[in-house]
From TrEMBL:
SUPFAM superfamilies: Thioredoxin-like. Residues 3-161 form the Thioredoxin domain. InterPro entries: AhpC/TSA, Thioredoxin-like_sf, Thioredoxin_domain. Pfam families: AhpC-TSA (PF00578). This is Peroxiredoxin-like family protein. It comes from Jejudonia soesokkakensis.
């Protein structure tokens, strides 16, 4: 299933490792919500990406962007992720269902090693407008070639300055 720009995104509700619940529809950012789906604890590229993201939290906040990182990992694996990776400031959601991952258009993989969960989603990054519509999406079938946060921050500046419309919904 493909979510089109300018169309409503699927509902999204996940538990956070801090014991609270995160609901997309209850987010109230000034400009966007950045939803980053990552593969899980087993993925070194995800570790690199989230540790990199930590260094940009203030930049995203200054641009009016709320963010969250979500995986299909269990609570136990998500808490280990938080403990072993340098990402304590990033809201971390877990137990994303396969059905929800598919609603978001994420690719699903099966384990090829004992370190991986039986089933997990591949990475995806979504910018969601304050009205709950999709502005942009980047979805991968593999752990490689993810968007760079510097590029995304520059794009947000351009989008806001030029009132650049979402593209690709035709």
């Amino acid at each position: 299933m493909m979510i089109l720009p300018k169309k409503k995104t699927p509902s999204l509700e996940v538990d956070l490792i801090n014991g609270t619940k995160w609901v997309l529809e209850k987010q109230d950012p000034k400009n966007f919500t950045l939803v980053l789906f990552y593969r899980g604890l087993h993925c070194p590229k995800c570790k690199d990406q989230l540790e990199d993201l930590k260094g940009y939290l203030k930049d995203f906040s200054a641009k009016g962007v709320n963010l969250i990182a979500i995986s299909m990992d269990t609570e136990k694996r998500a808490k280990i992720t938080s403990e072993k990776w340098d990402i304590e400031s990033i809201p971390l959601g877990y137990n994303l269902s396969e059905a929800s991952a598919r609603e978001w258009g994420l690719y699903i993989s099966k384990a090829i090693s004992d370190a991986e969960p039986d089933v997990f989603s591949e990475p995806g990054l979504f910018l969601v407008r304050t009205d709950g519509t999709l502005y942009s999406a980047s979805i991968q079938t593999m752990p490689f070639a993810r968007p760079q946060f510097d590029d995304l921050l520059n794009a947000i500046d351009f989008i806001l300055e030029k009132e650049y419309p979402a593209r690709g919904g035709h």
